[in-house]
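Milestone 3.1: sequence recovery, worked example.
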């Protein structure tokens, strides 16, 4: 009886979290469909459909229960799709969802027990296996007409150029998502709206998000990859790739982010530092998902060290003595 009550509590908690997150993802689907047309809808259907099917069959086969009720599968499929270019072959997000479900979520019994964020792991899998398809972006607006004119994302430009300039028109395009890049993570205005939503609905989760954005912002100002000024570096780094998207949806994941407010903030800062390191030194133009996975795996050790120092009055050696 106690086990059943605990299980119901976890499902209710998961439904509450992912229900809010799905509302935010739905807002991001609007500019994705506007700029990418029906192709965005098909990519979303392929990704979400695969995630839901894997979650349903995996839960029934391995646990004789329906894991689908926690809404994590719908979230995972939607998040993975929105991080893809609209031109991606449908099998790429589908396989990413298969990996996220069968390698990360299902073996551990559900969304509130995963050691890493399933959507981040699925996207990282796609990056390693299909980098050409994942990082091939059309010029903004052309995919809606079916022309698929090849373009270069902001994250790709940052890796190659040191003289990117900003003007009122380009800043407007960047903020509204009218640029080459992932079909659902480029609209900074909507993502900033999601940050406000987090403040109102999930203040503890916002601390992780804030710490992440703060660390990335400081890194962009101190170590710019462009020579056109600190403001250009800040805007381009924060608004390129899936940085803001990961700050809102991955760093705040209820299963992997710390519960204590101070630790939530520190975890966000730590994840942000890792994100910028993967951008500066990684082999992919966008390494935020790898940074999130590294943070998920290493933070428990760091938090344990902090706890030990706190218990021993600031000295980790006292307990050993």
């Amino acid at each position: 009886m106690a086990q059943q009550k605990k299980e119901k509590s976890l499902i209710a908690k998961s439904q509450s979290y992912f229900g809010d997150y799905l509302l935010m993802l739905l807002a991001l689907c609007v500019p994705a469909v506007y700029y990418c047309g029906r192709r965005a809808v098909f990519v979303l259907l392929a990704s979400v459909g695969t995630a839901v099917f894997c979650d349903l069959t995996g839960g029934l086969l391995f646990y004789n229960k329906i894991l689908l009720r926690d809404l994590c599968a719908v979230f995972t499929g939607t998040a993975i799709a929105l991080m893809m270019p609209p031109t991606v072959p449908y099998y790429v997000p589908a396989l990413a969802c298969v990996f996220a479900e069968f390698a990360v979520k299902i073996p551990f019994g559900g969304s509130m027990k995963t050691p890493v964020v399933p959507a981040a792991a699925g996207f990282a899998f796609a990056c390693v296996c299909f980098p050409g398809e994942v990082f091939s972006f059309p010029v903004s607006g052309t995919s809606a007409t079916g022309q698929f004119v090849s373009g270069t994302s902001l994250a790709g430009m940052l890796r190659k150029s040191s003289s990117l300039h900003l003007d009122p028109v380009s800043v407007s395009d960047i903020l509204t998502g009218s640029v080459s890049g992932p079909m659902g993570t480029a609209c900074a205005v909507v993502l900033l709206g999601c940050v406000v939503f987090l403040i109102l609905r999930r203040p503890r989760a916002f601390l992780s998000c804030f710490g992440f954005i703060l660390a990335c912002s400081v890194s962009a100002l101190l170590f710019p990859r462009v020579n056109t000024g600190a403001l250009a570096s800040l805007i381009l780094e924060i608004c390129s790739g899936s940085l803001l998207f990961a700050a809102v949806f991955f760093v705040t994941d209820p299963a992997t982010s710390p519960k204590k407010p101070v630790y939530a903030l520190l975890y966000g800062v730590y994840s942000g530092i890792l994100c910028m390191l993967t951008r500066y030194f990684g082999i992919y133009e966008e390494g935020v998902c790898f940074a999130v996975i590294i943070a998920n795996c290493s933070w428990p050790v760091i938090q344990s060290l902090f706890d030990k120092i706190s218990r021993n009055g600031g000295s980790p050696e006292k307990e050993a003595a």
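The chain has a mean pLDDT of 88. Residues 9-143+174-313 form one domain.
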